[in-house]
Write a structure and sequence with these properties.
2 domains; alpha/beta; four-stranded mixed sheet; single chain; binds pyridoxal-5'-phosphate; about 400 residues; Aspartate Aminotransferase, domain 2; 17 strands; Aspartate Aminotransferase, domain 1
């Protein structure tokens, strides 16, 4: 039995938390599947999925089982020792992907940090210090550490924190000519989100990814796919690179990998991995038995034909209804995205007002996401029930009706 706990409310946030977030007015306290309840007992449908994290919804029995079983065995030993869940997880990822080696960490930013450090290290070892330039894309998002905001193509996240990491340039997304003009023999890596998530759910063109692969090969540069948001079933394939059929040299994963338990992974080949020799990189918590036990259970459920095919079917269900709602209320002009990463591009009249749509949806009992000011994003559980999709979209339609009539 734990001790009785002091009551807390949303207002406490402003009293005791660093004000770098602006959370919604209600506090979720419990979840089951794609439903969430707040402190007052109000029920909401969750199409936000904890920002593309709760890949199997809330309190999925397989994940609760894996976590509690591991919790009774071994929580943490650090990387001074290895552990069984980490080795099982690495085997699973290696078997399922292009990768031959895995590095575990605790977040997407850390997975990218490891990816960028590995790319620079490989170039340094093979070609010398001149070859250290990283090419990223405008409006990309790779996390919030200083290296990852420097690589991310958004000054609003990187300005005002002193000198940035240098040797990084940004080219427009989906623009192969721009990449061709920028890449050189000083380039050590090109990093691309197969679908730009945070900045509006913008899928890459196949020709762009193929072209990027060829340019990297030509210039001895590594191709890094940031699959923190697109990975682990989100697109209806285990990773988005499989959807496109273009294989990276390094892949970062996090978000859905833990289904709500913090974990990140950097995947790569044996040939590249060997450049991170003993002592060159590390993390205390990374590959923690609890996180790895949960991620093992996530992969066991997600990487099955039923779940992956279900993602494609659910995409069609979302898209058809969202297109109807968009047209009927003049709220958005385009529904884009792959699998269960879907963005509704607001119409001219509603541009910049994604937050208003978020608020209107919340009032009707629906959690959605923004992806920048102009796009409403959906990143629900991959096993969201069809009945929950329909009920959630009914709520969304009521929100759209009220918003556009007001
Ligand atoms: C969320 C995200 C990150 C950062 O992940 P954190 O776990 O928040 O550090 C990096 N890249 C992409 C594409 C993301 O969507």
């Amino acid at each position: 039995m734990s001790a009785p706990q002091a009551p807390v409310q949303r207002a406490d946030f402003d009293q005791v938390m660093v004000p770098n977030y602006a959370p919604a007015a209600f506090i979720p306290v419990r979840g089951a599947g794609s439903r969430v309840w707040d402190q007052s007992g109000r029920e909401l449908i969750d199409f936000a999925g904890g920002i593309a994290v709760n890949v199997l919804g809330h309190a999925h029995p397989a994940l609760v089982g894996a976590l509690t079983e591991q919790a009774n065995k071994l929580w943490h030993v650090s990387n001074v020792f290895t552990n069984e869940p980490a080795l099982r997880l690495a085997h699973k990822l290696v078997d399922a992907t292009f990768a031959e080696r895995a590095f575990f960490c605790n977040s997407g930013a850390e997975a990218n940090e490891a990816a960028f450090k590995l790319a620079r290290r490989v170039a340094h070892d093979r070609f010398g210090p001149e070859k250290h330039e990283i090419i990223a894309t405008v409006n990309s998002f790779h996390g919030r550490t200083l290296f990852t905001v420097s690589v991310g193509g958004q000054p609003k996240y990187s300005d005002g924190f002193g000198p940035k990491i240098t040797g990084i340039s940004h080219v427009p997304y989906n623009d192969l000519e721009a990449l061709k003009a920028q890449i050189s023999d000083k380039t050590c890596a090109v990093v691309i989100e197969p679908i730009q998530g945070e900045s509006g759910v913008v899928p890459a063109d196949l020709a762009y990814l193929k072209g990027a692969r060829e340019l990297c090969d030509k210039h001895n540069a590594l191709l890094i796919f940031d699959e923190v948001q697109t990975g682990v079933g989100r697109t209806g394939e285990l990773f988005a690179y499989m959807h496109y059929g273009v294989t990276p040299d390094i892949l970062s994963s996090a978000k859905s990998l833990g289904g709500g338990f913090p974990i990140g992974a950097m995947l790569t080949t044996e040939d590249l991995a060997k450049h991170l020799a003993v002592g060159t990189h590390g993390t205390t918590y990374g590959g923690n038995p609890l996180a790895c036990a949960v991620a093992n259970a996530v992969l066991d459920v997600v990487n099955t034909p039923e779940v992956l095919a279900g993602v494609k079917a659910k995409h069609a269900r979302f898209k058809a209804r969202l297109e109807q709602i968009g047209q009927q209320y003049g709220l958005f002009t385009q529904v884009r995205g792959v699998g269960l990463l879907i963005g509704c591009v607001l119409s001219e009249a509603w541009k910049g007002k994604a937050k208003d749509v978020f608020n209107a949806a919340e009032k009707e009992g629906l959690m959605v996401l923004q992806a920048g000011p102009d796009v409403v994003r959906f990143a629900p559980s991959l096993v969201v029930e069809d009945a929950d999709i329909d009920e959630g979209l009914d709520r969304f339609e009521r929100a759209a009706a009220k918003l556009t009539q007001a």
